[in-house]
Amino acid sequence: MTMTGQHHETSTAAAVRCVVCGAMNEPMRYCRHVRWTFDQGDPLDFAHFAIETSPYVTARGAKARDIPRQWWTLNGEWVVEQVALRFDAIDGYVFGEIADLDLLARDIWKRFRPDQERPAIPRW
Questions:
Q1: Is 49 part of a structural domain of the chain?
Q2: Which domain, by its residues, includes 105?
Q3: What is the pLDDT along the chain (124 residues), one digit of tens a residue?
Q4: Which of the ends of the chain has fewer CB neighbours closer than 10 A, N or C?
C-alpha cells in the first residue's frame, strides 16, 4: 500500500513500532524518528512542511511560499516518490532521520530552482 493510500485509511489508535529504533509509538507519544503523522496531511503537505523548516531553503533567503501551487501540482508525483524513497510510512506514522528531512527539502528546492552552474576555473 502506498503512503497516499494509507493517508485515507488513518488508524493511529494502535501502537506502531518505529522501524529505526524499535520504540512503540501511539498518539502524542512519539519516538524521535516520527517525522509526520497522516492526520497532519498527505505526502505533499509533509513535503511542504520539509521546505518550511529547511535550513537549506532559509539560507538562500527563500520561503516555502516561493514555490507556486501550480509547481506542486505539476511535480506532485515526483515529490511523493521522493518522500516514499526516504521515509517509511506505517499505519499512520512517517518514520525517518532528521537528515532525510533536510535532504528531501534540498532535492525539492533544487528541482524547483536549480543552482546556477558555477563558472569554470581557468587552468593554465
A1: yes
A2: 3-112
A3: 445 555 444 444 689 999 999 999 999 899 999 999 999 999 999 999 999 999 999 998 999 999 999 999 999 999 999 999 999 999 999 999 999 999 999 999 999 998 777 788 888 7
A4: C
